[in-house]
Write a structure and sequence with these properties.
Blueprint lengths: L1 H7 L33 H32 L4 H21 L5 H15 L2 H33 L14 E6 L7 E7 L8 H4 L6
Antiparallel strand pairs: 1-2
Length: 205
């Protein structure tokens, strides 16, 4: 929006003093209207190329964010996901109470400048060169503390014990060959004609 405002309120020429020229006064130039590029023109293909590059960048960033965020938050590791949920819940409750005490403008200024500074190649190279010697020991210490805290304080219910059994419903027929089948007994064996119990004439168990 700043460039559009400067188009309507251009800077005063060197021959005019600032006292006679007010940037808050009425606009001195019409608003600039951007016309769409004509089809099959160079600008049209440039816009198409830029759009495809932007879509590729968005897909790459989206896949990278999912690769980082999804494993610890999809409850494949329930202890770790429960810990993250607990920290987020406590942080949210704390911010509801004490958010007015935090210097949000100073924090926003710091994070914005930090993100811009980290985009510089020299700063990135400096951070990568000093990561192993300075950041990696603290990362290991924080990871060991987090693992110990999870093992000590996050208690999950044990999965219920399951067993698989086979139960056969045995039937017998009353009244000879023309009789009807009726339920007789339940047992762990099918009591088929070749079973040892049936050959020996024993009652199924």
């Amino acid at each position: 929006m700043v460039p559009a405002y400067l188009v309507r309120h251009p800077a005063p020429p060197p021959t005019i003093t600032h006292s006679s020229y007010s940037i808050n006064g009425p606009p001195l130039a019409p608003a600039k209207t951007i016309k769409p590029a004509a089809e099959m023109s160079k600008d049209f293909f440039r816009n198409m190329r830029d759009l495809q590059n932007s879509m590729d960048d968005f897909s790459t960033v989206h896949d990278g964010v999912l690769k980082i965020i999804t494993p610890p938050t999809n409850f494949s590791n329930e202890a770790l996901s429960s810990t993250i949920f607990l920290f987020l819940f406590v942080s949210t409750c704390t911010l509801f109470i004490a958010s007015h005490l935090l210097p949000w403008r100073l924090m926003s200024l710091f994070f914005c400048w930090a993100s811009i500074t980290l985009g510089h190649p020299s700063v990135q190279q400096f951070v990568l060169n000093n990561r192993e010697s300075h950041l990696r020991p603290h990362e290991r210490k924080a990871q060991s503390w987090l693992d110990a805290w999870i093992a000590r304080d996050i208690l999950l219910d044990e999965p219920p014990e399951t067993r698989e059994v086979e139960i056969y419903e045995l039937q017998r027929r009353r009244g000879g060959r023309q009789g009807e089948w009726e339920s007789w007994i339940f047992g762990p064996n099918p009591y088929d004609p070749l079973s040892s119990q049936r050959i020996a004439g024993e009652r199924p168990k």
